[in-house]
Design a protein that fits this description.
It comes from Aristophania vespae. This protein has 516 residues and is an alpha+beta fold. The chain contains 14 helices and 32 strands. The relative contact order is 0.12. The chain binds guanosine-5',3'-tetraphosphate. Guanosine-5',3'-tetraphosphate binds next to helix 2.
Length: 516
């Protein structure tokens, strides 16, 4: 993205990267805000282009049929655009809680999150959960209170609710001018500038209200504090209406001014700073068959440090092999483009045929493994029922591919029984069924299993072998071949743990840390 003839200053390039995600409860306006942001960034000419319901995406992929039918956003994607001298990577997260694992992994790849709140509803269940994930990772949060063009709760009440429910300091960055149908813009508290769609004459009741409220806000609420924001303790709050395009540039300008540049990332052995010379990258998402005309498989990598260039050969640490980056790609709202160079913070797509998996690390030679990309023990376990026995081999292959992609988790019973799939939410089963049918032509159904819990088992080798042979029908291997114990109830699980003190039963598997 810069002139090839000049050597590029990594530090300068890194400092203008902004990689963020938008989190919200469904219907708060995430899709609309995404559109408006992309439009402000010149990435799309016309609003409506990124909508899951939109015509353009209908033909893109078969599994989007599910999004269309249910009006939800299932697919996580990334969009790169320029604004205010910065390169933004906007990562989309599925709003529905059934895809929380996908969301969690996406949040491992961002430096900042924009939390969208519906001004009439305040903090909702899903906002809170997503916020908690961000807090676990100390991700700085910018708050956008949306739908101010409608009847909304009192601003102070909203700020108070955010502060008390999330235990977070709130610092209003802007204040709304007018409310509901009379909402015409925002007032920037720091620069003291009005951004309104129409003039606001002296004596206008909205001006009087604004002056009174701002005086109160400045008196009782904390001023913006960059350190506190960077540590995730304070959120700057913006008011607006994504639909009416009010407050959107306030938000983007703030991300340019103080949105955090790429953070350091933890590996098993050391922390990797974004401005290090050598390239490192973490695969946090795999998406297959994005284009039904080409059986492609795209790994999404967050460049964690250095300057990545096309054609570069990187070390694929898990399998200890060289991996050539022939066609890394940037994703824009409407198309893709080959990456000539990318820097720490950027998210690039790397086409591959299954060599790259979620959690993989690429480096210029160092044996590093990024941590923090988890698998969660699924809460729903189903046996896959295949009506056409001729397709058993195809099903096995398809399940492995889809499990590597993170659509579901796959458990192969050690006694040779048919495969079991595990999911956090039942919508994942719908996605699996629909993709098996549409992309692999393998129609399946699901049967219940006697199991309701799964735990990864690690520990003393002999103890593990003894345990596995005693519990053959309840042991399975996950997609990486790591052993998993399946139990019918938490009582059975606790009993197994009590009776086997040399073994550990884990409900989260950190990729790259299996067996520890
Ligand atoms: P989501 O991705 O968070 O689920 O929300 P989305 O943007 O799809 O918005 C949910 C609904 O809220 C949409 O209405 C959208 O038009 C509306 N909306 C979003 N931002 C604003 C806003 O600032 N003001 C107002 N008044 N409405 C807003 P819908 O009727 O469900 O869909 P559509 O018919 O508009 O497509």
């Amino acid at each position: 993205m810069s002139d090839q003839s000049h050597p590029t200053d990594i530090t300068r390039e890194i400092s203008r990267r902004r990689t963020f995600a938008i989190i919200s409860h469904p219907d708060a306006g995430k899709t609309t805000l995404t559109e408006r942001i992309l439009r402000a960034g010149g990435a799309i000419q016309m609003a409506g282009n990124v909508r899951a319901k939109g015509e353009r995406r209908r033909t893109r992929s078969d599994w989007m049929g599910i999004e269309r039918d249910r009006g939800i956003s299932v697919v996580t994607s990334v969009m790169t655009f320029n604004y205010g001298g910065c390169v933004f990577n906007l990562l989309d997260t599925p709003g529905h809680e059934d895809f929380s694992e996908d969301t969690y992994r996406t949040l491992t790849a961002v430096d900042c999150a924009v939390m969208v709140i519906d001004a009439a509803k305040g903090i909702e269940a899903r906002t809170r959960k997503l916020f908690e994930i961000c807090r676990l990772r100390d991700i700085p949060i910018v708050t956008f209170i949306n739908k101010m063009d409608r009847e909304a709760q009192d601003c102070f009440a909203l700020l108070d609710e955010i502060s008390s429910t999330l235990a977070l300091d709130v610092s209003p960055a802007t204040w709304p001018v007018g409310r509901a149908a009379k909402f015409i813009g925002t007032y920037d508290i720091r620069t003291k500038k009005l951004h309104t769609k129409e003039p606001l004459p002296e004596g206008d009741p909205r001006r009087v209200e604004l002056e009174e409220e701002c005086a109160l806000a400045e008196g009782v609420l904390p001023a913006f504090d960059k350190d506190s924001f960077d540590e995730g303790h304070l959120t700057p709050v913006f008011f607006g209406s994504a639909m009416k395009e009010i407050g959107v540039t306030d938000l983007l300008d703030a991300l340019v001014a103080y949105g955090p540049p790429p953070r350091a990332q933890q590996t098993e052995t050391r922390e990797v700073r974004a401005d290090e010379e050598k390239v490192t990258a973490l695969i946090f998402k795999i998406q297959a068959n994005m284009d039904p005309n080409h059986r492609d498989r795209m790994a999404f990598a967050r460049v964690c440090s250095g300057r990545l260039t096309r054609g570069m050969k990187l070390k694929h640490v898990r399998i200890n092999k060289q991996f050539a980056l022939h066609t890394p790609q940037f994703f824009f709202a409407q198309d893709r483009q080959l990456v000539e160079e990318a820097f720490g913070g950027d998210v690039v797509g790397i086409p591959n045929h299954g060599t790259l998996r979620i959690g993989d690390t690429l480096t210029e030679g160092e044996d590093l493994r990024f941590t923090g990309v988890p698998y969660f023990a699924p809460e729903i376990l189903r046996r896959v029922r295949l009506d056409d026995a001729m397709k058993a081999k195809k099903l096995r292959q398809a399940l492995v591919e889809l499990a590597e992609e993170g659509v579901v988790q796959l458990f192969r019973p050690q006694d040779g029984a048919p495969p079991i799939v595990g999911v956090v939410g039942t919508l994942q089963l719908d996605v699996l069924q629909s993709r098996l049918g549409a992309e692999y032509n393998v129609p399946v159904g699901f049967d219940s299993t006697p199991f309701n819990l799964a735990r990864w088992v690690t520990g003393d080798k002999t103890a593990l072998e003894d345990f596995a042979s005693l519990n053959r029908t309840a042991m399975a291997d996950d997609v990486d071949g790591d052993p998993v114990f399946l139990a019918s109830s938490s009582f059975m699980m606790s009993r197994a743990a009590e009776q086997n003190p040399k073994l550990n039963f884990h409900d989260i598997k950190q990729i790259g840390l299996a067996g520890e």
